[in-house]
Request: fold
Amino acid sequence: MKLHGWQDKAVKLLLFGAASTSILVVLLIFLFLGREAFPFLKEPGIKAFFDTRWIPVSFQKVRFGLLPLFTGSLLITGLATLITIPFSVFGAIYIAEMARPAEREFLKPFIEILAAIPSVVLGFFGLIVLAPLVKSIFHLYSGLNALTGALLLALMAIPTVISISEDAIRSVPISYKSASIALGASELQTILRVTVPAALPGIIAAVMLGMGRIIGETMVVLMVTGNAGIVTLMPFESVRTMTATIAAEMGEVSFGSIHYSALFCVGVVLLLITFGLNLVSQRVLKKYGMMQ
Amino acid sequence: MKILHVILLPLLFVLLSGCDNAGNAPEKGDQTPSRYLTIKGSDTMVHLVSTWAEEFMNMYPGTELSVTGGGSGTGIAALINKTTDICAASREIKKREIDLAESNGVNPIEISVARDAIVVVVHPDNPIDTLIMTQLGSIFSGEFESWSQVGGPKQPILVLSRESSSGTFQFFQEKVLNKKDYAYRARLMPGTSAVIQSVSADEWSVGYVGLGYALEVGDEVKMIQVKADADSPPITPSEETVKNGEYPISRPLLLYINGKAQGLVKDFIDFCLSKKGQQTVRETGYVQVAE
Reply:
């Protein structure tokens, strides 16, 4: 069907508008965050962020060091990613290459259910069940630490990572595998030497998307990490993440105060990190032709 | 959770009073304009005062109460500026504020409607029963790191605090820590139930919660008896010791009004001090001041 010139243009514009709405929204969010965060950069200035303590309410001296929050998020994300990778990669290999159809039909829905558990429920489970368990296994004084948080976050990221990794593994052309088998390689050799390396970019992207989910998660870390603002990279210490800080303090902060704009600065940093992670993972997917 | 209360309750009230307004529109013509009341002040008291306001509006259809937080200071300033009928405050009015009020033609009158008390809790297996106020200050500010420094076993002290957005956090900081900062290693818990959960799970932790809550949970945690100073007798936290002022970590919850109570203001205050109103005090976790 051929449209008249102006109709053609109007429809095109409409579709373009619909497609670019999300870009506009992202831009507006950046603008809004920037505007609320800006007063902090003027007074007390960006140097205040390199303090090692986060003490937003004090009769002595308020301090807004981003360092403990940053290392907290870093530690939790790193640990959770380390836990996520083996489980989800092996899981994806099994589901994509080894599982019989009946098994796959059984496994996939269960993995997806895991993704559907609300984080507050998972957090409660962590507080009541997992924290005491971690405490008794490692003979600690308290189970509220970075490791407990990371374990729960891994549980949340695994379904996403398995799902995308599986797609990546399955999209490896059958001819690769046939060639490998024809050359006399066993099934296991084929999987480890041919299929997985070919799907590696997709798996890496899946892990990075999982990291994006982990770093942005709030409720679970607020409930089980203890939220002490300690600069540390030890898994058995209590840590305070950027997300938990925003969630815990934004509710009662007085509008327009330094504390208020400091929290928005934390939000900007968080947004930049997740934005970067998503961008890189999309690049990886695109480069290896794994994105439609 | 606190965040929800403070954001949602006032919002809910705006909505509720809006509905009321629409529903009773014809009746409203007969009412004098004094059927409208504003209450502003302490964030700690928002939950209590909102609950009162809700019950009061049910008892007196056609009245409208608007409850907002903002802090005791904000509430007192509003009373001085005559922008609120009633101020809710979790501290006594300062001399400077009284002078300011009088110069503005406002005569603040204080009514004590409830008391708030904070209890220090430890694990039931912790041998410590009694602590002096200064010891509590040193524990929560991180100066003491081992229970042996207060006569207990050689075990580390795990300090639990509420998040800094909590009214309890600030009251405890002022009263017990003498305005010092909390220990930087203190774990900041998102709610009272999380504090209780951790104290009952971790043998060497110490936290603080409202008295009402502590009395409810029973044997899962142990309440610490507090000595005001080294020579004072240890005081067990209870409704009794809070009411008679013996227990040191407590504060009055007050309403301030301008001049002698009359009309709707008097009705509301009478309601707060009535049996039903004081029942609400207990239900929201505070201590009653009247029977």
User: Anything to note?
Assistant: The longest helix of chain B spans residues 2-23. The interface with chain A takes residues 2-4, 6-7, 43, 155-156, 158, 163-166, 169-170, 173-174, 179-181, 184-190, 194, 197-198, 201-205 of chain B (CB under 8 Å). The longest strand of chain B covers residues 108-122. The radius of gyration of chain B is 21 Å.
